[in-house]
Amino acid sequence: MATTITTPFLLLLVLFILINSISIPSFSCPLHQKQALLNIKSNFTTFFNVSPSDFDPFQSWSPNSDCCSWSRVSCSESATVTRLNFSNIMPSYHNPASAFFDIFTPLFHIRPLEKLDISSNYLVGEVPGDGFRNLTQLHHFDLSFNGFNGSIPYQIFRLTNLRYLDTSLNSFEGKLGPEIGKLQNLESLHLIRNSLTGNIPEEIGNLTKLRRLNLAANHFSGGIPCSIASMKDLEEVDFTFNSLSMKIPTGIGGLPNITILALQDNELTGPIPASIQNLSTLVTLRLQNNKLSGEIPTRIFNITTLNYFSIGGKESKLIWNNKAKIFSKGRLTEISMPSCEISGQIPEWISSNTRLQYLDLSGNKLEGPFPNWLAEMDLNTIILFHNKLTGSIPQHLFESTQLHVLHLSRNNFSGELPENIGNATDMEYLMLSGNNFSGQIPISISNMWDLKLLDLSTNKFSGDNFPDFSNNFNLIYLDLSYNKFSGKILTNFPPFIEVLYLGGNEFSGHLPWNLRKLLSLKHLDLHDNNITGYFQDVLPQSPDLQVLVLRNNSFIGFIPTTISNFTNVRILDLSGNKLTGSIPLEIANLTRMIEPPIHKSTSGSIFDDTRRIYGSYFGNYVRFDIEDLIVNWKNNFQGISSHSLDIYSLLDLSNNRISGEIPASLGNLKSLKVLNISNNNISGHIPLSFGNLKGMESLDLSHNKISGSIPKSLEKLDGLGILDVSNNQLRGKIPMGGHMSTLNEFKYFANNSGLCGMQINITCPEDIPPPSEGRDDEDDENLSWIFWVGTWIGFPIGFFSSILIMGYFLNFLMLFKVCGKGGAAGGGQGEEEGARKRSFDTRYIVAYDCCERHHRKMYAGETEIANEIMGFIVSGYVWNDRRSHKTETNSYFNQRGVAQVAKGLGLVDGIHWSQVQTMTVALRRYPDFGPSFGSVRVQVMGMPVYGHAVSAIGRA
């Protein structure tokens, strides 16, 4: 039976075929948007010279395809580009310092753009602001993890649709202005780790929709704006690492949704607002390292949601109520309460927090043993340093596989370390310094494969059998200094060790050969041992060496010219050895002592690893602050932190047998702060180039054979606080310009043959004014040689002549009247006592008369001054005998002659000529008296003779 096909059906079939055969164009992104993106690709590939085989984030970007299908591009339903994700697209092999925002400027033509992410590209330079006026639809903008500088473009604050803004980890600077208050749709604001300054504007309170506010690690100052109380949607507030001051606004306690309140590391003052105890949703509270005061509110521990709690710190004045009964809800994961005046034993209420992982009770007044319940809690981090804890460490503590950080330094723990210490295989930081531990180091400690830092310094460990660290590839910091270890230096070093401190022990013998093979070594300190050998043969070969301290050992040999290879050395201390030879010229090529340090982040360096742990433990960090390097800094041994090594630069070659002259090239070391070459056999002059040592704070050249004068160029050293040139052969005037005028400690200039200057109260010949007008130098020369001859011959005559003259000027009758009174006053006390009274009265009259001429009154009881003046008169300081002081011989001869004459006449009993020089200090100390004595003179036989007889009155 045939099937009949109706006509309507055939017509529908034909229409269906025709419709499907017609080509209908698909939707694609607008041409101008595609071209803008292709321009970005062109900029990128041209700038970085990317080839097809290289990493190319734009490989899918073809001119023949729809841009909505490209990687890193998202479009709306209408095929319009709305999202661009350019995060982390820069080639890792390229130097990021050469990349700028200009690569992305074509995107400003894509006006419908809603989300833009250019983070983690290490871009530098300023961000151009003009193009952002086109991106009015932008609601998400992330430019974090770059190197942008300058200010944040103000045009960004006009993007009123922004809900997310992140400029973190850049170098933006300037102030955060009131225009921030215009972003009223903003929900997240992250400006972490920039260089923003000034106050946090009150207008920030306009951001009532804001949920996350993070301004950490900037330079904001002033107070926390009170307007923050109006931001009721706030969930997270982080102002850590700024300079915020004043009190915490009480309004913060009225934020109902707050979960994170982090205000640590600021300068906040006053008490903790009681309102904070009302934050019922609080999970994290960080108030550590501020200047808060008052009692710590214990009701905070009643917040059932609280997990992370840190408070106290070095400058904190908070006080813990040791009598308070804490009923913790057992939810705390972190308890950090350093320097909170907690006393007694470690509080047992801590044990109720079964989730606890992090405990810091350092810097308190805790006593007693390490509790067993704490050893059984299986914590991640235990920090109890700087307390008064005693006893031994429980063995059970090291059975934990969770323990990463154990810091028990500066307590009174004793005994030997448990043999099972190596069972804590996850340990990364173990610090036990400053206790009384004894015995040998357990061999099992080398089983801590993850160990990065081991500090056992300043204990009583002994022995010569050391663990084998040769397989500890993570161990980069090892400090065994200040113990009683003996024998030869251990040879089983960690292969990648960077810091090795073995000083202050009893090690002996030669250094092991493999020490030179530690190519990662940055710090080597072996001071105060008995290590021998030729210094030139034991130098490490590490190109990164920054600290080399071999002080007080028995090294011999010389400083080789290869010392210049250590271009990174900033601390070089070779003092207290037996080194000979001269200071090599090449020592002036130590680059880090020449150029000032470039301060930059040390993130990822040894110093970060050994002192700070960022983000590893519940968002908190550990600051160890180890003063691990002991050096002779400005004539005082002190500990300095190698974390701040860039601010120190020291060269100490003292107490050796080095000879020769000081190389002038040492003046190149402009960054050097301390230079000590004392107690050697160095000769020659002080180089003029030392005036170039702009960073110098302490310069010690004492106990050598240095001659000549102190260079005037040292006046340019404004930071010089110590200049010790004592015990040399220096002569001439001490420079007094600039900072040199303040260096007036006599001991630092003592025992030189001819130094003078105001700093040591010795007048230089060129500074002595002429004796009188009209007398020429030739007359002085002719008279000088006969003056003291006249003194010997004419002194007896001058003695009696001076008495007559003084009687005329000083009212001699009154003098005897006073003397009589003195004798009468002493009559009842015996002849000897009366004579002493008469002597005092007479000396007072003479001194008073001299002083009165210069309008200066002396109190009768100042017997010390009167005696010094009398001693000065006897010393024979001659005012017109200037030329006789040109030579040391004449000066001593004159003083000796006067002393002998005075002794012969009975003027001064038992005086020795060598004491005369000391007595002349009276004139220098009381210079106003000088002219008075000089005026008392007579002419006898044509020769000037001074009135030394005045002193006879003082002995009458």
From TrEMBL:
Q: Show the SMART domains listed in the entry.
A: LRR_SD22, LRR_TYP
Mainly localized where? Answer: membrane
A cellular component annotation (GO) from this entry: plasma membrane
Pfam families attached to this UniProt entry: LRR_1, LRR_8, LRRNT_2
Q: Name one GO biological process term.
A: defense response
What's the protein's topology in the membrane?
Single-pass membrane protein
Keywords assigned by UniProt, alphabetized: Cell membrane, Glycoprotein, Leucine-rich repeat, Membrane, Repeat, Signal, Transmembrane, Transmembrane helix
InterPro entries referenced in this protein's UniProt entry, alphabetically: Leu-rich_rpt, Leu-rich_rpt_typical-subtyp, LRR_dom_sf, LRR_N_plant-typ, StomDev_PlantInt_Reg
Domain Leucine-rich repeat-containing N-terminal plant-type, chain residue ranges per copy? 32-76
Sequence intervals crossing the membrane:
785-810
Signal peptide boundaries: 1-21
Top-level taxon of the source organism:
Eukaryota
List where in the cell it is found.
Cell membrane; Membrane
Q: Which family does it belong to?
A: Belongs to the RLP family.
- The name on file for this protein is Leucine-rich repeat-containing N-terminal plant-type domain-containing protein
What organism does this protein naturally occur in? Centaurea solstitialis (yellow star-thistle)
